[in-house]
Specification:
single chain, 358 residues, alpha+beta, TIM Barrel, Immunoglobulin-like, four-stranded antiparallel β-sheet, 6 helices, 16% helix, 34% strand, globular, binds zinc ion
């Protein structure tokens, strides 16, 4: 699996940003991104000239739009055309999500708990979702240094609640990037996982060998890992098969001999990603495995100052017979700017109902 650095929430002069698409692409390339999603408010008009800008800056631009209304903002990406939001009122957002899907796109709740301002009306999510299965992702981190913000913690908890209820929803970060200019706050990255054979081995231009739809599909399937530092990835090995982030471990209820085997968990922390573009103070961090059963495993791991790759292997214990494990993810916690925060988290690996192990 190759992991591509993506920024999934951006604006240009075509809505309330103060940058052109070209300035945005140049800034993203300088920050080590392989792809950006353009999500202007209620318009896709800034995409004109996209192909040439992609070629110049060697990064993929995903077409998108931030569906912007008084009842909430919804990030939509991968659309083949403009999705009309004007007729959707507060209790009909399910129809809006269906319209996005019909156009080949996917839909995510943008910054669902951000309190608005006169310049950002309707930032807070008030739509009533009837069908959570149709929601593709939740932007659980919004802005720079997102993990410290209370509104993002609430969004993260919403995601966890929905996983506990059995929904399979991805989680992303989005800077909601409106302008070029330096920031000294940590920048978050959503890494999307692509099968190795979908990427050409041609260095800097690797991102351009990836089709837009391949990236959309990765997010649709929850192959995502989010960080303000090292790239954290997770893989399970059960019954002699590997299960990457976003996949589902099948039930072995019918096969007790398989259920008796432990599940091996491989965790990787890659400190070499986007070298020189971020830093994490030297410290002992906490690497956790969390599921609907709570915090299952917590390891002390050193932060690396010399860009190494670190691997850890642990075994999952059996879950209590009356509470099946439904999903699992990994989180990296550490101290950044004096605050103890999530530094990184993976999306979930799921367990088929009636699951593994019992
Ligand atoms: Zn917004
Ligand atoms: Zn926005």
């Amino acid at each position: 699996m190759k992991w591509l650095a993506c920024e999934l929430h951006t604006h240009t002069l075509h809505s309330d940003g103060s940058q052109t698409l070209e300035e945005l692409a140049a800034g993203a390339a300088n920050l080590g991104f392989d792809a950006i999603a353009l999500t202007d408010h209620n318009t896709m008009s800034a995409l004109i000239g996209k192909e040439e800008i992609e070629r110049i800056y060697g990064l993929r631009i995903i077409r998108g739009m931030e569906w912007t209304t008084f009842y909430g903002h919804m990030v939509t990406i991968g659309l083949s055309a403009f999705a009309d939001w004007r007729q959707v009122d507060r209790d009909r957002i399910d129809e809006g999500i269906e319209a996005v899907h019909r156009l080949g796109g996917i839909a995510g709740l943008a910054h669902p708990y951000r309190i608005g301002s006169p310049a950002c009306t309707g930032c807070f999510w008030e739509y009533e979702i009837g069908n959570w299965s149709a929601v593709d992702y939740i932007e659980v981190w919004s802005g720079t240094f997102p993990s410290i913000q209370t509104n993002n913690r609430r969004a993260f908890d919403l995601w966890t609640d929905k996983l506990n209820e059995g929904y399979r929803i991805a989680a992303t970060s989005g800077r909601d990037w409106h302008a070029q200019g330096e920031t000294d706050e940590p920048i978050s990255v959503t890494y999307l996982g692509i099968e190795d054979d979908a990427v050409a081995e041609n260095g800097d231009a690797a991102a351009l060998s990836i089709h837009e739809e391949t990236l959309i599909q990765a997010l649709r399937e929850g192959r995502a890992s989010v960080t303000i530092g090292p790239l954290l990835t997770l893989k399970l090995n059960a019954d002699d098969a590997d299960y990457p982030i976003g996949s589902t471990v099948p039930s072995v209820v019918e096969r007790p001999e398989a259920a008796a085997q432990p599940i091996l968990v491989n965790l990787t922390l890659d400190f070499s990603v986007r070298a020189g573009l971020w830093s994490l103070p030297k410290q002992i961090c906490r690497l956790k495995l969390c599921s609907n059963l709570g915090e299952e495993i917590s390891l002390e791991v050193p932060s690396s100052s010399d860009g190494q790759m670190m691997q850890f292997e642990v075994q999952l214990t059996q879950s209590a017979p009356d509470i099946p494990r439904r999903w699992i993810r990994s989180e990296l916690w550490g101290t950044v700017r004096g605050a103890y925060v999530r530094v990184a988290f993976t999306n979930a690996i799921y367990f088929e109902e009636g699951g593994y192990p019992r």
